[in-house]
Write a structure and sequence with these properties.
It comes from Aspergillus rambellii. This protein is an alpha/beta fold. The protein is built from 27 helices and 23 strands. The strands form four sheets. A seven-stranded parallel β-sheet has the order 13-12-11-14-15-16-17, sandwiched between helices. The chain has a six-stranded parallel β-sheet with strand order 20-19-18-21-22-23, with helices on both faces. Strand 12, helix 8 and strand 13 form a beta-alpha-beta unit. The protein is globular and about 90 Å long.
Length: about 750
Amino acid sequence: MTMDPSPSLHLYSLPNEVFVQILSPFSARELLGLSTVSHRFHALVLRLLHYRLLVSASLKEYRLILECFHPTSKLTEPHVFCKYLGTDGLSDKYQGEGSLYENVDTAQKLGRLSSLYSRFQPVMTAEESPNGAGSTAVPEVNEGIPNADARAVKRPVNLEGFEDFSQLCVVVNVVKVKPGSARLLSVVDVEDGVIRIFRDWLKDNATPAQGSARNNPLEERNDQQLLWVNQSQNVGLKLRVREVSRLNQSFPILVHRDEETLASYEIYIDAMAKSNILFLTNSELGQATVCLAVAHEFLLRPPYSVHIASFSPLQPAVSRLNVRTLTLASSAASTATFHTIPGRSMINVLIGSGAYQNSFSTHQIGFHGALKTYSTLPRYLAPWTGAEYMAIYKSCVDIIQELHPVMVVVDPLFAQALDACRTLKCAYVQLGPNTLKDHVIQPMLGNLWKLPILCSGYPYPLPWRLILPNAYLAVKLGQALSRSPILKELNDTRHSHGLKGAYPTLMGTSEDNTTPRLIPSRPEIDFPSFVPKNFTLCGPILLPHRHIGRENPGLAQWLSQRPTVLINMGSIVSFSVDQTQEVAAGLRILLDAKPDLQVLWKLKRDNTDKVGDFLDSIFDEIREPMINGRVRIEEWLSVEPSCILQSGYVSCMVHHGGANSYHEAVRAGVPQIVLPVWFDTYDFAARVEWLGIGVWGSKKSAPVVNGAELGQALTHVLASESSLAIQEKAKSIALALGETEGRVVACEKILELIEG
């Protein structure tokens, strides 16, 4: 018997094009039922529904009609057309980076699509318009309330004394309108339901009659003003309430004193427009990370549209933020829009000018080292030319004017953005990684005698012998900034273009001593300092993450083998051949003393050294541990450092004294060894030693690293009689910080400022 060589044909032998033709006539509800037939049908149904959403948004001849009326006014209350404002998250990109389904499992894609909401603006009809002509104009987000009220669709709500609630019937239809007329060619029902409006809700959300023309239009933005028409929350109305004047007490109508009068309100049906939040930050991750972390919290809040403006190097980090947010969100979340600010970033300007040096030789410390550094400090604070500065300032102004944000969140080191906010007099808040010491002039000149001055490397508390040198350095630092020809030239350019005041700096001045400032400090993790009323101490502001086992299972498995030392010198610090060898020598001392430890080292190589230099004998000290897997070297960490630190596998972190690194380790309760390299990083070395949660690992050799000194620091923290006390102190401080993340505290404070 011969077998038929031709393959058997079955339903799935048909190409997708045929299936699309077959399925196209089905309604959306019918297609949803077919999505469970097979994986292939699921994928086809998803594509069809996605395509229909895209197409329907562009069909201008179709309109949404809203009928909203009290049951007694069904025949007299006119319908209103609604203008389509957009569907957040929907784009023609079906897969890959930036798509709606990015980083979403196949089984969850249909759920992601079904979680989208389209937004509409009710438009007053000719019958309702005060001048008798309907208007299709949509009010801008920040327009004054009186103008918005004049164009808004409103409905009266009256409650007798015995009534606890009133109700509005809501009917929504999609209609096809004959061009050039109001004739309806077709009607499709979308929703027919009822909204109950309770007396207490009206009281809580009402604006008094005399205050209908509000001074602050931001007060209207409240999640409670969104009422759902059905339990499935498919259709909702955003309502704003204005209390109507009660009966005048002198009016000649007899009312018993115990009789409750009629409660009257006007309900305004507002556009479901999102409020814009704008983050203006430098692109260096040392400054931008706190902004990205707080932006994540706003992405989880549907009423807000997040915009991040910076130089082009930050764009990949914003893309990663969007992926992370969609991954972590338990429900639908939006994505941040990135706005590129033309021009060179701060670090690129410093590299181009030659001011940026090898990471371990930026400046010397001590009295003479600090004194010498102060003359070069203005170049780091203000690296741009006058023309570059003004071009970046103009870009910030343009972005703010384009977006009309309800709040601008500004990096305190981004001077051009601060100038833009002050010029436009927009609402803004400063958010940065720095501590109180960097921002606040302490009472009784405490910065001179109480706190170690910048670049000095002095300890805290200051010993008596260093108080006078510290005060002298503080005076010299002030003189260096006030008399700097670099800052003077830049200020002359600013003033010639109409910008007022001095160049914006970290320290508070009389011009901005009321500007809200958010910082990651807490009393438990900082020097004792005076806290002005406009400061909010949020605690560590870190990027969110999943457990290390989900973020990177391979790395999690390796970490679980032994207690781990993490070496992470931030995003900028790079290692020369010499410094790499010194760190390797220090690790050799530790690994000999503690054979049960392992090391994860993020090693960024110095571009000035040849690649071949790293391939010869540089790792001889740790060659054997590298071969047997006890030392793992990576050019870049595939997960957030805080993800590794909070895994429970890390016994110590070695870092450069950056604010973010310090706060990541503090939050995780991990002991620290600080190898400071520049400016304020020496302050964090002093904090670690004062708090008893680690040591300064290069105190004798700074700014460079000495292998023997580092080895001694490592063994002190991990293999000495002091080890247990250091570990317990680090854990106790982490517990004292509480469960609420600093990014949540910062976000809630910004929301409080927005809502007045």
